[in-house]
């Protein structure tokens, strides 16, 4: 009977243990665990006096977890610091059982139990039950510690994820920012927070000179910052500026600690992001400027194109063709044909020293002058003096225009010519003889001393051909830096005499391209070709 | 001495309303936690933290907020975060804060939901 009774009671205890383990293991804190445990023990041992204490390490103080009887404070003398379960059964005093339980983390539980409600001594069964529950407490505590560690690990893992996420987010955000100052503020803020630094500082140097400093938090004192032990620094250099990023005082719940490798990696990653963002901002600005210039050049090119003839005039008894291929969006070459009031045709070619927008502006001025003066039909030499003066005043010192004009009287073939500093113009006579029409004055815009321009008069007869060109043709270079040359141009002019002027021009361009190959065009190519049929 | 962090607090509709100002680091987190404890002892279980003036928090600051959450959970209390910066909201999501606390766009919304 008695044996059966003991077995029944033990079965009940085991069932109790299982149920109680589940409730204890879900305790959210040591205090809750302690309180629960003491209550369970009270019920099991039929006593109201169960007290639980904890000591964090050997030599430490016993701290109250759960006291049902505050007088037990003085009873800690019965507890020990042995590395094994120490259970004392006491005869005198209010405490009847004193148990020291060494725990897995080198701390201790102390259990002080008073007398039973029925004032009877604790039986052997009670002692066995107590041991079982102490085992339960030990396992529960281990489980509690594991849960705590798991929580801490989760926290650390989440923090790592947060750091990585923030690194990506910061990279995206700072790449959107257009103001460098805000970019640097954001980087400093994020780097400080993600490494748990107490303060961050960014210094901007140009050469050795400190030109700016940002501190985070903004209200933080910057005194004695460099004397701090816990410090982490990196720097990045971009476009003559050096950005020095320093973090101070890495925080932990236990106080200031040293920055670790992860912090270093993170800080360097932020620094790289800043560098990339600034580089992107710089390239973006450059691209915008380039785009703006490109647009302006496009417009200038379009305007300039309008200065050139859209089509060649139809001159009875003659065939004429022309071409202009600028080397850049906007060129410095010019050619034009103009029908004068008296039926004569002006054939004009010009070349501004230089290329691009400045050259094209001078071309516009020249075109306007010609339109004005040719209408008035003053002698060419007089016109040249006037245009020279205008161009001289309109152009910078290094700019001038070589200029050739031949005014053709279609019925007679008479040519009224001015060559102002331009390369010799070719007139192909019969029997393959080239007559070169040399300059009769300096290029427009070189001097304005009223020097005369010497005009010439010639006649183009039937079957003869006239070639006006700019030096972009004979000076066109191949990859070996060999020029197309005047000789080759002359030879082409003599040998190639197609029926149509347009064919000549087309073939001339092909021949020049054949010579230059893949070498980029270095100067404008312009030509005007006249056949008297 | 220039302070880096400050905290405003008041009782509104039976709720403890706290507004931290500045970087919520160890110092900031501890200040918030102590203020909470002071009021928790008096029985306040509803807490609203207005983050309109704090847009940077480190993990130490977060650990203090988690302690507040733990204590409130033990006492079946409630915690709302209001006016959170998108960066902080993301931080809280990653750190799992919103599993145990709630968010509101404004303080008034938080106080209404507390009722």
Which protein chains are joined by the largest interface, and how many residues does each one contribute? A-B, 28 and 26 residues
The number of strands of chain A is: 20
CA(first)-CA(last) distance of chain B? 41 Å
Helix content of chain B: 40-55%
Counting H and I runs of at least 4 residues, what is the number of helices of chain B?
A: 4
The share of residues in extended strands of chain A comes to 25-35%
pLDDT < 50 stretches of chain B:
none
Gross morphology of chain A:
rod-shaped
Structural class of chain B: alpha/beta
Total domains of chain A: 3
Q: Helicity level of chain A, as a percent range?
A: 40-55%
Class of chain B, according to the CATH hierarchy? Alpha Beta
Low-confidence stretches of chain A: none
- The CATH architecture of chain B comes to 2-Layer Sandwich
Structural class of chain A: alpha+beta
Cross-sheet strand order for the largest sheet of chain B: 1-2-3-4-5
Instruction: Kindly report the average pLDDT value of chain A.
Output: 87
Order of helices and strands of chain A: HHEEEEEHHEEEEEHEEEHHEEEEEEHHE
């Amino acid at each position: 009977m008695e044996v059966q009774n003991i077995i029944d009671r033990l079965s009940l205890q085991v069932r109790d243990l299982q149920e109680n383990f589940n409730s204890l293991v879900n305790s959210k804190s040591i205090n809750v665990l302690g309180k629960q445990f003491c209550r369970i023990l009270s019920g099991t041992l039929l006593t109201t006096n169960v007290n639980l204490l904890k000591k964090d390490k050997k030599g430490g103080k016993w701290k109250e977890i759960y006291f049902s009887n505050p007088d037990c404070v003085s009873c800690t003398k019965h507890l020990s610091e042995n590395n094994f379960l120490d259970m004392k059964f006491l005869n005198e005093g209010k405490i009847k059982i004193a148990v020291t339980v060494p725990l897995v983390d080198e701390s201790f539980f102390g259990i002080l139990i008073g007398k039973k409600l029925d004032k009877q001594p604790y039986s052997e069964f009670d002692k066995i039950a107590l041991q079982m529950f102490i085992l339960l407490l030990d396992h529960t505590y281990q489980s509690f510690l594991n849960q705590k560690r798991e929580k801490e690990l989760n926290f650390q893992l989440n923090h790592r994820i947060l750091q990585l996420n923030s690194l990506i987010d910061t990279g995206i955000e700072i790449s959107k920012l257009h103001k460098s100052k805000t970019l640097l503020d954001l980087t400093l803020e994020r780097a400080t927070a993600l490494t748990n630094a107490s303060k961050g500082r960014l210094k901007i140097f140009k050469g050795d000179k400190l030109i700016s400093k940002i501190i985070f938090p903004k209200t933080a004192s910057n005194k004695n910052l460099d004397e701090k032990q816990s410090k982490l620094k990196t720097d990045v250099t971009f476009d003559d500026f050096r950005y020095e990023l320093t973090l101070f005082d890495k925080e932990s719940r236990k106080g200031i600690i040293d920055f670790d490798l992860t912090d270093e990696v993170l800080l360097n990653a932020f620094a790289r992001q800043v560098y990339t963002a600034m580089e992107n901002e710089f390239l973006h600005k450059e691209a915008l400027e380039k785009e703006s210039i490109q647009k302006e050049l496009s417009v200038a090119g379009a305007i300039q194109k309008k200065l050139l003839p859209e089509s060649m005039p139809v001159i009875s008894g003659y065939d004429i063709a022309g071409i202009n291929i600028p080397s850049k969006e906007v060129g410095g070459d010019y050619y034009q044909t103009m029908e004068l009031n008296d039926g004569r045709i002006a054939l004009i070619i010009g070349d501004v020293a230089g290329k691009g927008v400045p050259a094209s502006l001078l071309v516009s001025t020249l075109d306007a002058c010609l339109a004005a003066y040719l209408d008035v039909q003053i002698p060419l030499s007089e016109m040249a003096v006037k245009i020279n003066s205008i161009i001289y005043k309109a152009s910078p010192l290094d700019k001038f225009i070589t200029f050739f004009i031949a005014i053709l009287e279609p019925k007679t073939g008479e040519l009224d010519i001015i060559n102002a500093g331009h390369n010799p113009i070719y007139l192909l006579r019969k029997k393959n003889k080239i007559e070169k029409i040399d300059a009769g004055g300096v290029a427009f815009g070189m001097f304005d001393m009223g020097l005369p321009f010497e005009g010439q008069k010639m006649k183009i007869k039937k079957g003869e051909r006239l070639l006006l060109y700019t030096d972009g043709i004979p000076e066109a270079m191949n990859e070996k830096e060999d020029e197309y040359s005047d000789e080759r141009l002359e030879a082409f002019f003599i040998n190639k005499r197609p029926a149509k002027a347009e064919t000549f021009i087309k073939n001339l361009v092909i021949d020049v391209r054949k010579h230059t190959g893949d070498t980029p065009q270095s100067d404008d190519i312009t030509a005007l070709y006249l056949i008297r049929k | 001495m220039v302070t880096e962090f400050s905290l405003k607090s008041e009782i509104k509709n039976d709720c403890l309303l706290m507004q931290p100002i500045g970087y919520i680091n160890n110092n900031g987190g501890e200040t918030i936690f102590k203020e909470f404890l002071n009021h928790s002892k008096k029985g306040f279980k509803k807490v609203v933290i207005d983050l309109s003036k704090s847009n940077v928090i480190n993990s130490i600051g977060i650990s203090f907020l988690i302690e507040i959450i733990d204590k409130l959970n033990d006492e079946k209390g409630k915690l709302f975060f209001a006016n959170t910066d998108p960066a902080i909201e993301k931080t809280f999501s990653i750190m799992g804060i919103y599993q145990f606390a709630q968010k509101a766009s404004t303080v008034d919304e938080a106080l209404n939901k507390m009722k």
